[in-house]
Amino acid sequence: MDLATLAAVSRQDLFFVLAITATFATIALLVVTVRTDFGRSSGNRLERRASSRGARDPREALALVGDTLAATHNPEALLPVILRATADATGAAAGRMLEDGIETASVGAIPLGSEPLRLELASPSESETTMLLYPPSSGFDADSERLASWLASQASIALENARLHHVVQHQAVTDELTGLVNRRRFMTALQTEIARTSRTGPPSLILADLDDFKRVNDEFGHPIGDELLQAFAQALLAYVRDIDIPARLGGEEFAVLLPETPLEGAAAVAERLQRFLAASPLLVRVGRDIGATASFGVAELHESEAADELLRRADAALYRAKAEGKNQVVADAASAA
Predict the structure, then answer these.
(1) Burial 127-145 (b: 16+ CB within 10 A, else e)
(2) Which of 22, 186, 220, 273 sits between 20 and 30 A of 98, alpha carbons compared?
(3) Which DSSP letter does residue 73 get?
(4) Between 226 and 39, whose confidence is greater?
(5) How far apart are CA 56 and CA 259, in angstroms?
(6) Cβ contacts of 55 within 8 Å, gap of 6 or more
(7) For residues 106 and 132, is the Cβ–Cβ distance under 8 A?
(8) Which of 47, 160, 193, 252 is catalytic?
């Protein structure tokens, strides 16, 4: 592993730790704040007013948000929970959640002529998330408005941490340069596909390696080399199905997992991509087109075979393609037998 890769992994691990820490800190904050601000005696003023309006105890509202945050880090799943909990706690007649002005969740029936209490939940740098609470016939008193504002601020923390966790999870399974899945995610998908072959047909695997990639870096520089890798990733996406899983395994080596696909079908996909690369430049630059060919190794999963063995056979086929002159597709002989 080179220094750049090590640095990227370290950053990724740091982000993951920060996201997990932020999540648990948020849950802890919800619990502590509920206990200190709203967990006093049953004579608490807000609790009495909530009870008189038929509203939910504020502690229940925060517990609901906290439980949801612990169960999911999907911001879209949190939004309706935040809205419902806040509307229940404040005795609102209705509520709406808006993202960039578009409604994403609603509760209750909006009273005619009612002006909502407007609460911003997210920073302007992200999507603008707004919660609208419509008062009951008696209106919101000062305590209700204070409670709504307080709940919204706590929910905002949960929402931002959920978004952070979502970003970190995406980074953990995605190759930063190409946007394809990374080796870790690809191996997980391969293991999953192998586990389900008893109910479906066996998958096939394509390994691809750009030919003479070092020459591209030496002649044009690493930024152009990076662009070439990105262009090859886009070509992969164009030539595979939606159910197929293309990945960058590292450097100039790529893979495609093709579920329920026999060797002949996978080889045909590789051959179409090989012909495209041989005939068309991947990058067009002023005064010069930059192309690249690739070598491909293809193998089909055998019955009761492990992922490592399938990868070994596909890699052996790729090695033969390189040894026999590059710019070609070689299918694993054992798969074809």
Answers:
(1) eebbbbbbbbeeebeeebb
(2) 22
(3) -
(4) 226
(5) 50
(6) 49, 88, 89, 90, 91
(7) no
(8) 252
> Which pair of tokens denotes residue 172?
């953990």
Bridge partners, residue 126, by sequence: none
Ordered alpha helix ranges (H), 124-141: none
Total Cβ atoms within 10 A of residue 279: 9
Query: Locate tokens 């609901």: which residue?
Result: 64
d(CA 320, CA 318): 5
User: Is 252 considered catalytic here?
Assistant: yes
Taking only the tens place, the pLDDT of each residue in 298-310 is 999 998 899 999 9
Cβ–Cβ < 8 Å for 178, 172 = no
Q: For residue 1, what pLDDT is reported?
A: 38
Using one digit for the tens of pLDDT, what is the confidence trace for 134-154?
999 999 999 889 888 888 887
DSSP letter at 44? Answer: -
- Whether 79 contacts 155, CB under 8 Å: no
Contact 283, 228 (CB under 8 A): yes
Say which residue the tokens 């750009």 belong to.
210
Angle at 122 between CA 50 and CA 33, to 5 degrees: 40
Which helix (H) or strand (E) segment holds residue 40: the answer is: none
